Amino acid sequence: MKKFLSIAVASAMVAAALTGCGSNPSSDSTAPTEGTEGNAADSGASAENAAEGGAAAGGVFKIGGIGPVTGAAAVYGQAVKNAAQLAVDEINAAGGINGAQIEFNFQDDEHDAEKAVNAYNTLKDWDMQVLLGTVTSTPCTAVVEKTHEDNLFHLTPSGSAVESIQYDNAFRVCFSDPNQGTASAQYIGENKLATKVAVIYNSSDVYSSGIYQTFATEAPNQGLEIVSAEAFTADSNTDFSVQLQKAKDAGAELVFLPIYYTEASIILGQADKMGFDPLFFGCDGLDGILAVEDFDTSLAEGVMLLTPFAADAEDELTQNFVKAYQDSFGDIPNQFAADAYDGIYAIKAAIEKAGVTPDMSASDICDALKVSMTEITIDGLTGSGMTWGADGEPNKEPKAVKITDGAYAAM
Amino acid sequence: MSLLSYLINGISLGSVYAIIALGYTMVYGIAKMLNFAHGDVIMVGGYVVFVLASGMGLPPILAVLISMVVCTVLGMVIERVAYKPLRMAASPLAVLITAIGVSYLLQNLALLLFGANTKSFTSVVTIPAIVLAEGQLTISGETIVTIIACIVIMVGLTAFIKKTKAGQAMLAVSEDKGAAQLMGINVNGTIALTFAIGSALAAVAGVLLCSTYPSLTPYTGAMPGIKAFVAAVFGGIGSIPGAMIGGILLGIIEILGKAYISSQMADAIVFAVLIVVLLVKPTGILGKEIQEKV
């Protein structure tokens, strides 16, 4: 009886898997579902449909994406997945890249390096030619080793650690960590937000400690005094009473949080409980804090973050993007969505510049794109006149936003 | 002043550890097994309150009571289904490994049901914070409730064991299972009761933990579970006052270590202290003096 049951379960699972990635004809392929379940299956299905449409005209470029659509950084992966799909659909509707359609396949990595490498292998089995990903730094640093080995063109929308693009095949849309740390110190200094600054950072995360180091180097040049710098690790990321108490005792006027939003939401709550009310300033990792389930957004009132994208910007490109995103997915896009959208268009521009075709191998495409990537100029959501250096870093201006009335507002 | 604040935070954190450690220590005392799934019962308790209070809008007190009932039933079911058959048949090691398995099962079930996204837990405590010394020292409502709950549970549990028949039965079973059975004590029933009490306490600990540190994930119970286990060993496993003292000391050491030595090394310091204590006193702080093990 038990054996029969397990066989039944196994065959049911196989059947489900087959229908998932194979022939799911239902549902509008342009709109991936909101929920976390069945994402892989959905993007697989939509890619399949796109493939059928594009096969007639000049082949299909296979672009893979990797990022956390579940887990502690899910807000980022979801945003990247949605926005990249939006850009892909726009490009396909407008005739594709030099007549070739794009297939986009997004895999979940749960913000975990091992799972990201697994996702990468899955995408390679799918014959990916260009990778948009990964979304977060630590997994990206692991995956870049693989893309370098395979000589596959790698553009991360938001992996900001230095090591995330350490090879010549890798580029990024967002700022690097050193860049963010330096820019944060400069922004605080130039706008005279505070002179006594406390820092709470995650020493077990390359993103966080990377920003902290350059911030600490730049701070004295800006007349900032770091009165307390306290770390936490992934295993002790719920109790911040000590770090906050130290910042409070040291008389900090501003607390710099180069961390992700999950911990930041706890820090804001605990600071409020102990009656500590400094300015809070963060980097792009804080983007998404308003989307934490059940989080009291009034706690985040007045929090500032350095990010190149504000959804309420007046320009036409941003407005159109925000509207299209809201129509498709129901929420206001964050910086990660904008990075991903720009990333897809950057890939398009680089492909057009290099004149590569879908029938070329991933390695040949990579060799052509890593040259053409440094020659293109993009007017995107996260900056106008963006260019890239051979080191993979973008050149653009940082901007800051402030959380006002439960929404991100440009400053 | 900041030392005082650290101490209060330490006692608060330690009180949560102590309540969790009670579950470990009672089960160990009676069934002679380490219930590694205990930490995850805490997480289940947290999710039940989250769903009832935040999702369905029930009053927090009611949600906590329902959560205690759910965890009690869960603890008894785990004991009945996973541990009891093995306890009869296999070596203690098999039960230990099963407990680790149950722990993963609970975590993955929570992943499946609630997803891996962090939930921001709304505190069930409505008592306002006490502000002393012109804002220099703030004691949050959660801290007060946690410490009071810890004391009440400690006193209640001791009274239960000393004064009631069921409590006396627990004592007897922990001393000698065979002899207790000969005296007409229902050993299996007593063990089930122990699991029930331990799991109800886990629900309380879960609520207090999530109220103080307002985030809830399927892994919320794992680290506090391990720390509470350390606290139970630290205080002398099998001893109820030992679990209490061990828990509170551990909380204070963790917070003070974080404050005065290194905020990164807090966990390493906690475990280093455990090693030192065990080297000096292998049975834990109260391990030997207290003969009555429950």
Question: Could you list some keywords that capture this structure?
Answer:
heterodimer, A: about 400 residues, alpha/beta, Rossmann fold, 2 domains, 7-stranded mixed sheet, 5-stranded parallel sheet, about 45% helix, B: about 290 residues, mainly alpha, ABC transporter involved in vitamin B12 uptake, BtuC, two-stranded antiparallel sheet, two-stranded antiparallel ribbon, 11 helices, globular
**Which architecture name of chain B does CATH use?**
Orthogonal Bundle
Radius of gyration of chain A: 22 Å
CATH superfamily of the largest domain in chain A: Response regulator
Query: What's the tally of helices of chain B?
Result: 11
- Top CATH class of chain B: Mainly Alpha
Number of domains of chain A: 2
Spatial extent as radius of gyration of chain B: 19 Å
Class inferred from helices and paired strands of chain A: alpha/beta
- End-to-end gap of chain A: 66 Å
The CATH class of the largest domain in chain A is Alpha Beta
Strand content of chain A: 15-25%
Under CATH, the topology of the largest domain in chain A is which?
A: Rossmann fold
Q: If strands are numbered along the chain, what order do they take across the biggest sheet of chain B?
A: 1-4
Tell me the strand order in the biggest sheet of chain A: 7-6-8-9-10-14-15
Q: Helix/strand-derived class of chain B? A: mainly alpha
For the largest interface in this structure, which chains are involved and how many residues does each contribute? A-B, 34 and 36 residues
Write structural notes for this entry.
The complex is a heterodimer of chains A (411) and B (294). With 411 residues, chain A is α/β, with parallel strands linked by helices. Chain A has helices spanning 2-21, 39-54, 74-93, 113-125, 137-150, 177-190, 206-218, 241-249, 261-273, 316-329, 335-354, 362-372, and strands spanning 60-67, 101-108, 130-132, 153-156, 170-172, 196-202, 225-232, 254-257, 279-282, 304-306, 378-380, 383-388, 394-395, 400-404, 407-410. Chain A is 43% helix and 18% strand. In chain A, the strands form three sheets. Chain A has a seven-stranded mixed beta sheet with strand order 7-6-8-9-10-14-15, with helices on both faces. Chain A has a five-stranded parallel beta sheet with strand order 2-1-3-4-5, sandwiched between helices. Chain A is globular. Residues 11-57 of chain A have low confidence and may be disordered. In chain B, helix 1 (2-31) packs antiparallel against helix 10 (240-260), helix 3 (60-89) runs antiparallel to helix 4 and helix 9 (222-235) packs across helix 10 (240-260). Chain A binds chain B through residues 36, 70-72, 74, 110, 203, 230-233, 235-236, 238-239, 241-243, 245-246, 249, 262, 265-266, 269-270, 273-275, 292-296, and chain B through 2, 5-6, 9, 13, 50, 54, 115-122, 129, 131, 135, 138, 140, 142, 212-215, 217, 220, 223, 255, 258-259, 262-264, 266-267.
